[in-house]
Structures are given as C-alpha cells and as structure tokens.
C-alpha cells in the first residue's frame, strides 16, 4: 500500500500527458468501420500490432458493453524518429484508434491527436507528428464515408 501511495504521489507531481481526443462519426457499423480503417492502414504500409474487441472481451467474463474495438498500429520508422529524440514518447506509441457504438446507434471513431505530443515531450523535429496528424484525419475520413 505504501508503494502505491508513493506511485500516485510521483505521478501527481510529474503530471501526465493530457492528449487531445479527436472524434469522427462513421456511416458504418463498428465492425465495418474498423475493417475499413485497418485495410487503409495496411495499404499505407503501416504495421497493425493488435486489434482488440472490447465488447467480446467483456462477454468472455459475463459482462456486456456496447460494440467497441481498438486498433493498435503505427509506422516503426516514424515512431523511432520520435523516440530517438525523447524515449519517454514510447509510452504513447504505437498509435491507437477506438471505434465504438455510442449507445444511440451512431458509430464513433476516437484517437488522440499526435500534435499534443510536442507539448509534453522534448521533441525538436515535429514534422513527423504533423504528417501523422494529417494522415490520421484523411484515413479516418476515408474509413467513415
């Protein structure tokens, strides 16, 4: 218990990254939206590290939740360029996109803005973040239409 208190104190002293959460509605179901997004990620030559079905996992322990899937993906080259500048940014990488049903029949895509990383880490060359942010906007738009 004492070590947990120390950890909480340390985190509160140093703070944590407050990322900007971006959202976009999709015209498709959670499954179709995620399938479309994952396909785009792969077409762009990016790596898909994992796909997590939160609703399925909840069901495996006898619980229910709205349809929700998380894709963990990225480009090791871009991530490495950032981590070479500040290794701590590795806590934020790879990228993640959540697609979920918001309860009233709408499908929503959510992701953290990569641009927020430049405010929280010692990153001198942030061109890669701007490129990733623009790419995510285009990829989520394509998957949602």
* Largest sheet: number of strands, sense, barrel closure: 5 strands, antiparallel
Number of strands: 5
Rg to the nearest angstrom? 17 Å
The stretches of 5 or more residues where confidence is low (pLDDT under 50) are 1-15
| CATH superfamily placement | TT1751-like domain
Kindly report the oligomeric state of this protein.
single chain
- What is the arithmetic mean of pLDDT? 88
CATH topology call: TATA-Binding Protein
The figure for the number of domains is 1
Number of helices: 5
Within the largest sheet, what's the order of strands? 1-5-4-3-2
Q: What's the N-to-C terminus distance?
A: 49 Å
SSE pattern, N- to C-terminal: HEHEHEHEEH
The percent range for strand residues is 15-25%
| CATH C-level label | Alpha Beta
**Main structural class:** alpha+beta
The percent range for helix content is 40-55%
Tell me, briefly, the overall form: globular
CATH architecture title: 2-Layer Sandwich
